[in-house]
């Protein structure tokens, strides 16, 4: 009977391991094969979500390195709103900050992607399964009445 329980726990753990490996493989292949290329407009949207500032503030921040006048920024921003054409200084700003934006944007993603969370939940799962197995094999047989123990022959060898 204890061998059957141990075998069942091993099978469940093996299935969970295979499931996690398949999910990780699918996540990697999805990341490498994007359905569409990410545009500058997508990065502008990411920047506004990560920083909590408006697109106009992003235009003004990107114009600081190029020394663009405030009137020109206003004109370019109005053109961006009407035709979605991004000026050169914003493209340069986005190109230089793509890696940092991606890192920050991933940090604001779903909590189910967090590896530390999965590791801690896996450790808790192993702890609970191990504790339940310990209770079933070594504690409960000594607590149960003698008549019940003798009829099913459970307990440590």
Characterization of the model:
The structure is a single chain. The chain is built from seven helices and no strands. It is mostly helical and 157 residues long. It has a domain at 40-97. Helix 3 crosses helix 4 and helix 3 (55-63) crosses helix 5 (88-107). The mean pLDDT is 78.
State the order of secondary-structure elements, H for helix, E for strand.
HHHHHHH
Report the average pLDDT across residues. 78
| Percent of residues in helices | over 70%
Q: From the alpha carbons, calculate the radius of gyration and give it in angstroms.
A: 29 Å
Number of helices: 7
Proportion of beta-strand residues? under 5%
Secondary-structure class: mainly alpha
Terminal CA distance: 12 Å
Sheet having the most strands: none
Which stretches are poorly predicted, pLDDT < 50 over at least 5 residues?
none
Q: Give the number of DSSP strands.
A: 0
Shape estimate:
rod-shaped
Give me some keywords for this one.
7 helices; mainly alpha; single chain; 157 residues
Brief account:
The chain has 157 residues and is an all-alpha fold.
């Amino acid at each position: 009977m204890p061998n059957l329980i141990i075998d069942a726990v091993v099978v469940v753990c093996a299935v969970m391991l295979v499931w996690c490996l398949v999910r990780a493989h699918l996540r990697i292949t999805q990341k490498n094969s994007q359905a569409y290329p990410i545009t500058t407009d997508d990065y502008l949207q990411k920047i506004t979500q990560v920083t909590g500032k408006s697109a106009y503030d992003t235009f003004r921040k990107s114009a600081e390195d190029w020394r663009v006048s405030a009137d020109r920024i206003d004109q370019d921003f109005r053109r961006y709103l009407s035709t979605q054409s991004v000026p050169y200084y914003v493209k340069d700003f986005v190109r230089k900050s793509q890696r940092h934006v991606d890192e920050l944007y991933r940090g604001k993603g779903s909590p189910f992607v967090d590896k530390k969370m999965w590791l801690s939940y896996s450790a808790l799962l192993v702890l609970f399964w191990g504790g339940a197995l310990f209770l079933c094999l070594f504690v409960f047989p000594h607590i149960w009445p003698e008549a019940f123990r003798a009829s099913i022959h459970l307990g440590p060898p």
